[in-house]
Design goal:
This protein has helices at residues 8-20, 24-49, 54-62, 67-77, 84-88, 90-107, 115-140. It is mostly helical. The protein has one domain. The termini are far apart. The model has no long low-confidence stretch (mean pLDDT 90).
Length: 164
């Protein structure tokens, strides 16, 4: 929805403007998209750090369907085996999960939600994105927004445990 070349503060401003202009449902959908994008891009960086090439990392993360799958895969690629919830905190994860459920309900036509609910969730999530970005940056030195460090050659078998 927003190009990575656009500074995060400008994206945040656009999200707030959607709320201010009364487009609460759109604000919620876009805010959840932005949050999921940060998490997925950070996971790509973790996969690259684990030794996979950048192309393989994108393929691995692309196959993960939904936020629950991203959460489950996180501890596999985290250098210390930590879970996503340990990194961003349970309150932030619960808010992201709840907002994603509301977004999915609306996008797939399962249920409508009031503008008040959408506005409240979008506001809370915009503030939580800042917290998530800060925690990702302090933990991994990458917050999911800028350009990730690429790997062109695999480093997976640099210390094999079986004969190659």
């Amino acid at each position: 929805m927003y190009p990575l070349r656009m500074p995060y503060r400008k994206v945040r401003s656009r999200l707030k403007n959607l709320l201010k202009d009364g487009y609460c449902s759109e604000a919620l959908v876009t805010t959840v998209f932005t949050t999921e994008r940060l998490l997925r891009r950070t996971l790509v960086q973790l996969v690259v750090s684990a030794g996979f090439t950048s192309n393989d990392a994108f393929k691995i993360v692309q196959r993960l369907s939904g936020l629950a799958a991203v959460k489950e895969a996180w501890s596999i690629y985290d250098p210390k085996g930590r879970t996503l919830v340990q990194i961003i905190g349970n309150p932030a994860w619960q808010l992201v999960r709840e907002a994603a459920k509301i977004r999915n309900d609306m996008v797939h036509g399962m249920r409508t939600h009031s503008q008040g609910t959408c506005k409240r969730m979008a506001r809370e999530l915009i503030e939580t994105i800042d917290v998530i970005k800060d925690k990702l940056k302090s933990t991994y030195d990458f917050d999911g927004w800028g350009m990730h460090r690429k790997r062109r050659n695999s480093a997976l078998h640099s210390d094999p445990k079986v004969p190659i």
